Amino acid sequence: MDVLFIEDDTIETMKLQRTVSKLQLKHNIIEAKNGEQALDILKSSSKLPDIILLDLNMPRMSGIEFLEIIKADPKYKYLPTIILTTSENRADLLECYRIGVAGYVIKPLKYEDYETKLKTVFEYWQTNELVKA
Ligand SMILES: [Mg+2]
Known about the structure:
The chain has helices at about 10-20, 35-45, 65-70, 90-100, 110-125; strands spanning about 1-5, 30, 50-55, 80-85, 105. It is globular. It is α/β, with parallel strands linked by helices. It has a 5-stranded parallel β-sheet. Helices cover about 45% and strands about 15% of the residues. Helix 1 (about 10-20) crosses helix 5 (about 110-125). It has a single domain (about 5-50, about 60-125), classed as Rossmann fold (3-Layer(aba) Sandwich), CATH 3.40.50.2300. Bound molecules: magnesium ion. Magnesium ion binds near residues 8, 9, 55, 57 and 58. One of its GO terms (biological process) is phosphorelay signal transduction system. This is Response regulator receiver protein.
């Protein structure tokens, strides 16, 4: 799958890359540091990603702002977007589901737990029929 991974924290990005390579997953991870950069990537690439993994707390454009923009755009609104966050804030969770997310995953602190959880996320989405652009 082509996975657009939107995350401002370099450590988190390394953690995801490490998980993908350790599990020998063949996914193509496209990195964006915030919502603004992610929008630029979406607009400039000829092919849309299969899924989006989205952090919430980011500078310049937060995950929720990014989500509102893509869900209001007929070109991007069907892209399955999964929140990947440390925020256990119920208001955030409700707001994300209201706007339209395909999932809301809380990042475990322990690396082993993170790996297990991400493995499940990737396997689940690989099982799905995805909208090919
Ligand atoms: Mg962040």
